[in-house]
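Researcher: Quick sanity check before group meeting.
Model: Go ahead. Protein one:
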Amino acid sequence: MRPRLEARARHFAGLGYATATLELPGAGVRPPIPQLDGARAELLSAISAGDRPGDDVVDRLVLPLVERAVPEWRALIDAVLALPEVGGPVAISGGVIALGVRLAATEPRVVAAGLFAGSVVPRSIIDEARRVTIPLHVLLQWDDHGNDRQMALDLFDAFGSAEKTLQANMGGHTGVPPHAGEDAARFFVRHLGRRTDHP
């Protein structure tokens, strides 16, 4: 994922935006979280067998991750906005969609979000989505067999935003076409303004 994340960050930096990301709790070089690893193994086993993961497995994997990650993201926003060369507004892009929903619903500094419907979603997060009212650009890979397309559509329908766009493209999880990134960039420029006059 790193090359794709770096490419996106460099693209947005080229538009004049400060960009930052965090490794998810329990991922990469961060200390493992055994209960999340167990739930992840169950989820992958169900998907490999062609089954829909049970709600209990999805909840045990995603909700603790969201609970741990959202405070870290708030602290990251604090740290980035404290830099003298960086100002608002703030937008979020990509990542675990349940984390994006929680952050968009609870962090008033976030004014727009580009979300990727490419991860499993607890039903309680769909309820939280009703509180999201900021402009949204949601990307859905139509043939992403590891994820529940109908759940992604239900989540999109639940968002309370007056401005929300769903962009669906053919292809699997990593088959996002280049023009989808360009569309997302136009969305952010529309809501954040162009910042190319900044270093």
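Researcher: Fine. The other one?
Model: Protein two, sequence then structure:
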Amino acid sequence: MKLTILGSGSPEAYIRRASSGYLIETGKDKILFDCGGGVVDNLLRAGLRPSDITHLVFSHLHSDHMMDYARLVHAAWDEGAPPLKVYGPAPIARITQGYFGKDGVMSHDLRARTELVPSQEVWKARGGTLPRPWPAPDVIEITPGFTLKGDSWALTSCQAPHAQPVLECMAFRLETDGASFVYSGDAALSPEMEALIKGADTLLHWCYRLDDVPAHPMMVKMTPTPSQIGRMAKRAGVGQLLLTHFRIQMDGPKDQARAVQILHSDFGSNAEIVEDLNTYQISGPDV
């Protein structure tokens, strides 16, 4: 399978990094984990279209993980795509209705595009037929422990300690016949996380705080550093470790070099900090 980094940043507006978004391509499916601000632009830069996405899986509903959701759905709909399969914690169904329902915030736009004759003619000229339905994502609300089977892959999950009880937060493991990938979402260390990543070929883990940087005691507990993540991944027998979700103040050359040095010391050489539009081929050790 192929991993493309569509957003490796945080909630902060930052030209170098879009907010969270990670694309896995396996078989005929293109599975997007999270859809933060700037992710759709990077999807286009990667040579893909919104209508190419078959599944969208939300780890949680902080804005930097879902700000481009409405844009992705609307753009795919405008390209004539079938309804997008969407999986995420509550209240993703209510959010979707709030965007695309009959009284949703997009209803003025959708009425104009589907009811006005000039817009209908534009749609017909592009190969569409009337009446034109509104966007209707196929939304399933999920909780930790959720599983899903695709044609050539299987998804499992666990709770990711982060913003509970206000937001449910999850991590995911995607397995194919030859490879395994884990996306942590935003996650503190926990026994459940360590079990989920055990033996994974690639672990993509958020990193909100560097080693030796002062932080509030509650933040220390919830934001593991490169050394802590590296040691956990090594204990669990992970093959490759990728860190993401870097903030502006962590992203200077010296800070990056120090973080990579720590990763290599505590995990091993097959570890790095990702950048937007990086791609990785994920395969098992015998492939």
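Researcher: One line on it for the slide.
Model: Residues 2-281 form a domain with the Metallo-beta-lactamase; Chain A fold (CATH 3.60.15.10).
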